[in-house]
Structure of HD domain-containing protein:
Amino acid sequence: MKICFNHLLLAFSYALDCVEQDCCYVSHFHGKRIAYFSMKMGEYFQLNQEAMNHLIACAILHDNGMSEYYKYGEHLDVDEFLKAHCIAGERNMSYLPFYHHIEDVVLYHHERVDGKGPFHKVEKDIPLYSQIIHLADWVDIHYSFKKMDPIGYQKMLNDIKELEGIHFSQEVIQAFISTITFEVIEQDLYALNYELKNNEYLTYREIPHSQVLSICQLFAHIIDSKSPHTKSHSIGVATLASQMAIYYHNDQDKVLQLFIAGVLHDVGKLVIDRDILEKPAQLTDREYTYMQTHAYYTYRILTDMDLGDIVHWASFHHEKLDGSGYPFGKVGDELDFNDRLLACCDIYQALTEDRPYKKALSHQESIKIMREMAHQNKIDSQIVEDINRIF
Ligand SMILES: [Fe+2]
Ligand SMILES: [Fe+2]
Ligand SMILES: [Fe+2]
Ligand SMILES: [Fe+2]
């Protein structure tokens, strides 16, 4: 498959921002702004194209460990929380095929050069990319750029200079001052988005299947980490979908694409509040309507990723043949075979796993429910029978 890795990440960054907003205050487009500031500072250090790609990837993913917030959010103090999200984020980064180039960058993205950060590293032991991301992140958390005027901008630079030798190194501060000019700060979000998507550093590459799989594992881990009750749901749906694709004699590429659709089908859940995802009881009508928007967000995020057929296979997993599904109310004619397949795999996986409000059902019980749904013209009866045959 030919993909631009950072394009995928940029689309995914919207979901990551929502996760972060769920646990602490960050600006809209936080991930993208950090990526943009880092890219500009990377130019100061004259990074080559490959290095720039790595830096941008780390910048977008710097807080990916936040989706595990539920594990430690309530009972850790701020310092412990900082450390925990760095460790979780670093572990997820190790799925990336180019991890050996970016080892420890996410782990140390909150380190201070005076050694008073979460892991007490000093300037010489903190990777340059971590230092760049740390400054970009600090600035975005502490200042609002919307109403910033030249006087406010100058004050911000003075504040940063005050932290030389404490939080940041002289060199990284110089990189910031040289590249993040008032004109850069002034840019609106559309301009920033455009520059990130159309810069000279983005590269489309033919990526081997094994590498696509590890990238998928990274995404799946972040998605499933948001809720302990669905911790293996995405991988479960992906595995079912690919096994079924093999049963239907699809070629290797199609099998992989269906696996990716399975991994990403609930990416929109990252946008949904944790309290709703984990509610240990049936949702109210209003909460249920809100929860349903996850399928629409999956559609939006995947459309941005430019993933071809994978977009509809993944996003239509709650559509029903009789038009009663969501988010678009598609009917049978509008749902191709793989749209229907993903829908069935999602239902089978959900029925056979524990949820906050119910225990896992057996294969027989699940098939019984699915046959009833097929009888009501909700899902494809032939696929239900094939699932029964295979699992
Ligand atoms: Fe962070
Ligand atoms: Fe951040
Ligand atoms: Fe879903
Ligand atoms: Fe699902």
